[in-house]
From TrEMBL:
Residues 46-60 have a biased composition (Low complexity). Residues 46-76 are annotated as: Disordered. It comes from Knoellia sinensis KCTC 19936. PROSITE patterns: PROKAR_LIPOPROTEIN. The lineage of its organism: Bacteria, Bacillati, Actinomycetota, Actinomycetes, Micrococcales. This is DUF1570 domain-containing protein. Residues 61-72 have a biased composition (Pro residues).
Length: 328
């Protein structure tokens, strides 16, 4: 059947500890300086020591809307096959192999949290330079904060087909190995959900769930991971409602704290109701129609799946944010 337009996810690598993003003056690929601000911590690729919470807020988002269905091939690209991944790029083979290993791990992590039927394979495109990245995603705007874009055609059922994760070489280089693993796991979660559910849920749930999978197994306290958001809460500038779609628009201001807010909301659902209920909630909140219909579906899912209401859940979530932000 003919494909509908591309449907890509806007995601963020929300800075929350000093283990994922190197400073501009620091070593890009080595261990981070102890005082750098860094992204949310996914499952570490290698054990890393704890680091103090950053004093500054995050700046590294990961996937705005992508480009057109027909995209040019990468000239001179190599391809490495992993167990559950295919990585094609113009970087060296060792780097492609490392990305394939991260992608294989990501698929395994996603499978632990998403039991719907999906291909359980991911495709990664790894351009060597920013020009090739822009060509692949069909974008000309400022993508300096973007670590990766997930895009692919959507079929007549509303499910994504042939999704691929396109890495931004400049932003990706600023991440530590832990940060790269987080991005690939986050984006692989989008691939899984997009290919198995028609339509989409409200954006806070989509992005919060991807972060939930990315954080799994990090072993880090929520208060440490969510430090940039909790600083705002402590200052009286925290959220008063669940994030809306506009809260994830980088042109409207800093967006990383909103991703952390969405993650903590999803995390609350998982802790109070369990992973299976979280999946049912996500499924029930996904529609092929307008965002307004998705909001309506989510309101019904709060009642039918979680036996609560959006208002009651929001009240509990905000109370937990205040508790996490309170001086210890």
């Amino acid at each position: 059947m003919p494909s509908r337009p591309l449907r890509a996810r806007l995601t963020v690598v929300a800075v929350a500890g000093s283990v994922l993003v190197s400073t501009v003056t620091g070593c890009v690929r080595g261990e981070p300086e102890p005082t750098v601000s860094a992204s949310v911590v996914g499952t570490p690729a290698v054990p890393e020591s704890a680091a103090p919470a950053p004093a500054t807020s995050p700046t590294v988002p990961a996937s705005p809307p992508g480009g057109e269905p027909s995209l040019p091939p990468l000239a001179g690209a190599l391809t490495v096959e992993g167990t559950a991944s295919t990585v094609t790029g113009t970087v060296d083979r060792a780097t492609l192999t490392a990305y394939a290993e991260m992608a294989d791990r990501a698929v395994s992590d996603v499978n632990e949290h998403w039991t719907h039927t999906w291909p359980r394979q991911v495709t990664i495109i790894a351009p060597k330079d920013a020009a090739a990245f822009r060509e692949q995603v069909g974008r000309a705007d400022d993508l300096s904060q973007v670590a990766a874009i997930t895009d692919g055609p959507v079929d007549a059922t509303g499910r994504a087909t042939r999704d691929r994760i396109v890495l931004n070489p400049d932003a990706f280089a600023r991440l530590t190995p832990t940060g790269r693993q987080f991005v690939i796991t986050h984006e692989s979660t989008h691939v899984a959900v997009r290919s198995s559910l028609p339509g989409a849920a409200p954006l806070w749930l989509v992005e919060g769930f991807a972060d939930h999978v990315g954080y799994a197994g990090s072993g880090r306290p929520r208060g440490e991971l969510a430090a940039p958001l909790l600083t705002r809460v402590a200052d009286g500038n925290g959220p008063t409602r669940l994030p809306t779609q506009g809260d994830f628009d980088p042109s409207q201001g800093e967006i990383a704290p909103n991703y952390l807010a969405a993650w903590l909301a999803v995390d609350l659902i998982a802790r109070r109701h369990g992973e299976a209920a979280l999946q049912r909630f996500h499924t029930a909140s996904s529609v092929t129609e307008s965002p307004a219909r998705a909001e309506d579906a989510m309101d019904r899912a709060f009642v039918d799946v979680l036996d609560t209401t959006r208002a009651e859940f929001t009240k509990r979530w905000l109370a937990e944010l205040n508790q996490l932000a309170a001086p210890k």
